[in-house]
């Protein structure tokens, strides 16, 4: 009976081909030759008696059944990895490899402050980091490419475990010579929608900022053009408008060497929740809760934003 069961290697080849969309790139990602990967997938097709991939000179196209089997393969490979994780979790916690995705509006501001402390706290932990948007990070988590995600909520995460770390306040950033001379805090109705610059679609901070303002016309009128917070800051510094920044970015020094001021956004939901999320039923559940405790404690040591 075991002779008719696909091997993990065959499933890995199939998943890699789906992700890469090209036999050569898939082979490179698996560290095998293209002929080895192609032969492995043909063996899989022969084993189960169906065609999974339609091959042409230029296009790799999965059949409908092929797509369904790829989704199953993701789960099988993830479960296989969690077998090893289960054994690791039974030993000393927070040791060995840990793969974490971090969203771009967190990674450059929080990690430089937290990672040195984490290395001192858990020197045997080998942390592998991926910076990707929330959507990509959740896909990586679902497919087993990462073990946990450091992200901002609210976001549609699906069925996951999560641990609250801290709230990250939102600030309105504008040129220091702005003639409007804003007060110590800025209410949403004071924001000129024609001057508001936001991150492009795909960044959850844009949705958090718009939700906090609770002004439907901002979504239609705001200029969504920034590919990163640093890009937005440069545009504001050049007098092109104003933007909304998270507190951690300001604490991380994003406004240094600029002529930009920042005031707290005064609104009911003027903050995003920073959280660690992981798959339900993960054998490393206790470890992720321990890691959350460490990250939460370390974040409390960071200095607050200096008042202007």
UniProtKB/TrEMBL annotation:
Alphabetized UniProt keyword annotations: DNA-binding, Transcription, Transcription regulation
Gene3D superfamilies given in the database record: Periplasmic binding protein-like II, Winged helix-like DNA-binding domain superfamily/Winged helix DNA-binding domain
Pfam (any one): LysR_substrate
InterPro entries documented for this protein: LysR_HTH_N, LysR_subst-bd, WH-like_DNA-bd_sf, WH_DNA-bd_sf
Residue span, HTH lysR-type domain: 6-63
Entry's Gene Ontology cellular component terms: protein-DNA complex
Listed SUPFAM superfamilies: Periplasmic binding protein-like II, Winged helix' DNA-binding domain
Recorded GO MF terms: DNA binding; DNA-binding transcription factor activity
PROSITE patterns from the UniProt entry: HTH_LYSR
Family to which this protein belongs: Belongs to the LysR transcriptional regulatory family.
Protein name: Hydrogen peroxide-inducible genes activator
Native source species: Sphingobium fluviale
